């Protein structure tokens, strides 16, 4: 396993973007209470957060340092970054309650006589899957059941779309990330790396 004294060799393999992330993580490591993360952990964070820009990472860490007192996991940093991305791109995902309110509004305003209008494609797709006419014709007694069904379908759709965005970002950087992680784990030089890659096939 890579040791603290071996880390400088790995630093030479990092891209400029990864070095920027490392600098940001190092700075925030001094801000969070408790013992700062060791250099090796920070290097691995900078590699595994490969799809994230330095600007978004800095904003995510600033948000987290204001809301929690322990060093965040990669999952927590990714969640904070996703929330910031939605705000920056003005594409915040409506909550299930907000989405259901839109459905009720369109059931009253549009009914079956015109095309309903929703704020996001996700709401539109869930409504189409459930059947717009069936939603409009639901009886008051069955409305709570239909609302619960919509909640489950909508929540699953939102999670699926977030997973797809994250998966695509990870796949785009997978080869570079895997190479750097092999170097970090085995501590081999650049000349030895082809042998490792051959063994991994």
Give a verbal description of the structure.
This protein has about 200 residues and is mainly alpha-helical. It folds into two domains: about 5-90, no CATH class; about 95-165, no CATH class. About 70% of the residues lie in helices and about 0% in strands. The chain is built from eleven helices and no strands. It has helices spanning about 5-10, 15-30, 40-50, 55-65, 75-90, 95-110, 120-130, 130-135, 145-170, 175-185, 195-200. α2 (about 15-30) packs across α3 (about 40-50) and α4 (about 55-65) crosses α5 (about 75-90). The protein is elongated and about 65 Å long. The model is unreliable at about 185-200 (pLDDT under 50).
The arrangement of helices and strands along the chain is HHHHHHHHHHH
Structural class: mainly alpha
Biggest beta sheet attributes: none
Terminal residue distance: 21 Å
Could you tell me the radius of gyration in angstroms? 23 Å
What's the gist of this structure?
With 201 residues, the chain is mainly α. It contains 11 helices and no strands.
Q: What topology does this entry show?
A:
Elements lengths: L6 H5 L4 H14 L9 H10 L5 H12 L8 H15 L7 H14 L11 H10 L1 H5 L6 H30 L1 H13 L6 H8 L1
Helix pairs in contact: 2-3, 2-4, 3-10, 4-5, 6-9, 7-9
List keywords for this structure.
single chain, 2 domains
């Amino acid at each position: 396993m890579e040791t603290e004294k071996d880390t400088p060799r790995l630093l030479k393999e990092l891209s400029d973007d990864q070095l920027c992330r490392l600098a940001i993580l190092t700075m925030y490591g001094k801000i969070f209470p408790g013992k700062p993360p060791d250099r090796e952990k920070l290097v691995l964070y900078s590699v595994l957060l490969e799809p994230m820009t330095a600007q978004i990472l800095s904003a995510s860490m600033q948000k987290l340092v204001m809301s929690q007192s322990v060093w965040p996991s990669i999952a927590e940093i990714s969640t904070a970054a996703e929330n910031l991305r939605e705000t920056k791109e003005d594409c915040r995902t409506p909550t299930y309650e907000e989405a259901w309110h839109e459905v009720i509004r369109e059931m009253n305003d549009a009914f079956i006589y015109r095309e309903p209008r929703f704020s996001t494609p996700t709401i539109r797709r869930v409504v189409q899957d459930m059947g717009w006419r069936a939603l409009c014709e639901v009886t008051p007694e069955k409305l709570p059941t239909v609302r619960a069904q919509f909640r489950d379908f909508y929540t699953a759709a939102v999670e699926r779309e977030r997973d797809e965005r994250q998966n695509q970002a990870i796949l785009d950087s997978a080869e570079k990330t895997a190479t750097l992680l092999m170097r970090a784990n085995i501590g081999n030089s650049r000349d030895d790396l082809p042998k490792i890659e051959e063994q991994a096939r």
